[in-house]
Amino acid sequence: MGSLIPLIVAAALAPLMQALIIRTKSVMAGRIGPPLMQPYRDLLKLARKGAVYSHTTSWIFQLGPAIGLASVLLALTLIPFGGFAALSAFPGDFVLVVYLMALGRFFTVAAALDTGSSFEGMGASREVTFSAFAEPALFLAFAALARQTGQLSLSPLLAAISARTWAHAAPMLSLALGALLIVFMAENARIPVDDPTTHLELTMIHEVMVLDHSGPDLAMIEYGAALKLWLFAAIIIGVAFPWHCGHRWIDASAGLLGMLMLAIAAGLVESSMARLRLLRVPQLLLVAIVLSALALAF
Amino acid sequence: MTGLLLSLFFFLAGAAASLIFARRGRWPSYLGAGGVILGSICGSVPALLVALGAPPQSFRMAWDVPYGSLYFGLDALSAFFLLPIFLITAVSALYGVEYLEAYRGEKALAAPWFFLNVLAASMVVVVLAHNALLFIMAWETMALSSFFLVTLENEKESVREAGWTYLVASHIGTAFLLVLFVLLGRAQGSLDFDRFSAPSGAGTLFLLALAGFGTKAGFVPLHVWLPEAHPAAPSHVSAVMSAVMIKTGIYGLLRILTFLGPMQAWWGWTLCIVGLTSGVLGVLLALAQHDLKRLLAYHSVENIGIIALGLGVGIVGLSVGESFVAVAAFAGALLHVLNHALFKGLLFLDAGNVAHATHTREIDRLGGLLRRMPGTGATFLIGAAAISGLPPLNGFVSEFLIYLAGFKGAVSLNASGSVPMLAAISGLALIGGLAVACFTKAFGIVFLGHPRSERAALADEAAMGMVAPGFVLAGGCVLIGLFGSGVVRSMGPLISSVSGLPSIQVGRALAAAANSVARVGEFAALLVAAAALLCVARMKLLARRQVATAPTWDCGYASPSPRMQYTASSFAQPLTETFRMLLQTRCVFTGLEGFFPRRAEFHSHTDDPYRSRIFQPLFHSISRAMASLRPLQQGRVQLYVLYIAVTLLVLLLWQIA
Question: Residue A143 and residue A148: Cα distance in Å, rounded?
């Protein structure tokens, strides 16, 4: 039955994955980069601070981060990891995962609009635009995987994908994986969709929406973002690196290795290319939709 | 049945009483609303009992009209549609008492109350009628009474125009229904529903029903009356029309399907296509609107699309013998009927509060209303999240069921059978994403940030009688979000009557679907608990620390003004630009001349593409063709007498020959 391990691993290691991406980018740029524990220190520091609220904001602004973190935490209880099934699994649970993300987005966007800032409105507008294209791609990719494995729930679905599945359905799995990777980059505000490290508010998507948050609120948002990165990465690794030798801990270690490789790969992508023009992003997401539709055709 | 007859009696008594006491100040309001509310309470008891599994009832009386009989039947299908009708009309009547106060003195209030009672009674008869003649009469009464409600503010040109469009559209729809009922009744020579038989051309009958009932329900491209009529009506009437009256179209379609024998796969495909078009175009057109009530009206088109999509998936599932797909999809579609009634009623009532307080429905002139109108804002937020299909609210539960059916079908059907399933899944996902965009816009721009106009800055919360109804409906949204599985479990008889599947098979599939819904409900409760816990934790953390307030970060600009905020149009612009092929937004831009431009103007307007490209040219060409007959009409009595005489003469000659 379900296990708490995937949730605990995610809660503990999600910020580390962010740190690994940053480390890869630093090494590629010839720098040493911040220590791997830096995201944890940042979270702790933010959690210890006071807060500054804008005059304009209402209770929506304060509710947003809490709902965002709560929804991603609950979504994580449905994500398996390594040989461990998720805490909870039922037919159609991936629909709930996607819609929990959408709930988090709804409130992040509402909190951004609550400040009355043009910049945050701009970011919010981009966020809802891009995710409207990302959702069909994600659902079609899930449909392709479900059709391949005959499962309607994430834990058995990912457990059913093995090296043997890859042997006879490699084209379909790689197409679905391509779609998932594009959605992973779009939903987690990574290059080439969004640049989390840029300094210009005008060009940001996700970071600009949380400009006015501070203290524990910002800690919740940052932690939520790390967990969301982990969530999508765990699904991708479940498909791309299906190590099932029967021993759950060895499988989980293999999963961790996969996460490390994905973090490095994300870092390499980010160091090797620039962000796309915002007008091009819907086209990238259309590519993801086409990829997952093709995956269904196989 | 006694309860329902009593409820009809109360509606008619309320109608009569509000006319009799028309000149007594607030009496028509109290009497009219009292009639609606008492009638709804009386009627909902038997409807609830039958919906929960009591045996169906019927009541029959002879009627002098040829082919007519006063034949009422209350079965699971009728009961399920009656419940939202009673709830929404009662809540809207309660709301109307305060809302119509603003018109007192300039309008006679007796008329809207008379027509609201008649509308309530006719909707109940439509759903209960088991005789086609009775059905058509109630259907016409429903169209006419709502027409008079829509045109309450008939001094405005736009309202008269909207009412006219509505009247024409409903009658075109009725024309299809007349043909449909004649064809159905022809074989047995009776117009009673239980003697209807499916002749060979079931497909034609299905298309007739789709066009006739689709006009009422608002399927694209027959929806053109909807975005005109719903914003023009007073808000409590918009709520009734959008939340329950258009659902009688869905009811009619389902009722006809039960007469047509085994359902064919292409009906399902057709409904899937209609649903996808309505859903996607509805939400896209909503995104492009600047008027809050018009935006909501387009969302009705979208939600009717979701319902049609669910029915389509169900019929495809049924035709290939996948009972789980059929049952889950029908359950989702029917539950969405109820859910849409709850949140759309809520949103229209709250939009009414906004319009009442600020005297504008222009989204870009509002802003910051959450502080001035806390109750309206909080309930609008619940409605907005629910209509976007987000957990932990009811909209998610019904969409989840349709997704579940779609995924099950995509997994277990062969290639051609899974195409509509995949189309439904990706369509629902796109609709969901766009709905989030549209409702973050509607809620965010109207209720958050700074007020964008003086009227918005000076807005006051509406009276208790206009805020409380919203809380009732919001409560319903939360309850179904948490305990939707109970509703799904009780839908067994309903779904077996719609799908024609044996009840054991339905029960088994429904139990499986309800189990997933129950888990969704658990997650909804956990979500609320987790968010509350995090809020408390944050409050504890901040309790002894410095919490300051400051202006919003504006990159160092010293004197921001409310006009610099992002507007609804700019918020939606990336999406409306991406879909400009479908929307055909017209932009008017003047200005920026010389080195120091003084004034510049920008307007954008999105017409309904079907109205401006199909229906207007069509009706213009009809009226041009008819113009040649115009000389016949001179307005002189002598000439008309001559026409009569000539006609008689011609008939006489024809008879002789």
Answer: 8
